[in-house]
Amino acid sequence: MPKLVDHEKRKKQIAEATWRVILERGMEGATVRNIAKEAGLSLGALRHYFSAQDELLVYAMELVKEQAEARIKRVAAENLPPKEMMLKILLEIVPTTKETMAEMEVWFAFTAHARHKKDVFDASHDGIFTAIARLIHYLDEMKLFKKELDKDVETEKLYAIIDGLALHAMLEPSRVDRNRIIHILTSHIHSICKEEQENSGVGHL
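RESULT FIELD:
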């Protein structure tokens, strides 16, 4: 068991080195040689953990996804009013901190790189659309979602808003800052919810 733990820890360290290389040099600089150097490993040692570049890149991106999912699960487990919980979850998806901004920048770079390699990694399966669909369904379950709205359409609209905010937060951080993002998301959440007192109890996502 100790060897397994050490192995996974080392793989995570290599993945984190991969993120740093992508942030500093872009995907074209994310060679096995550069990543090994950043991780402080020889090429042979790195290949002990990852036999090919694509295998390493996919692992690094899956780790980004897992970290985001873990943050969302922690928020979902909190005892928050529905609208507040929805906002807090969306703020774990849209980059508003140095950590999440770095994750998003790496994710966008990798998505562009992987768009012709769907046999290796399908970046469209990032889990964001599914998470948003569940949030819309959750509002409906809590009797907050406006009856006149179409859940499928609102899921697509919110997905587009999240994508747009994420991109512009990365490209224009001084304009699309955390306060602006919170204002836009809060406004949108209120626009799809009924005008009534929220119940402090929560359902299950």
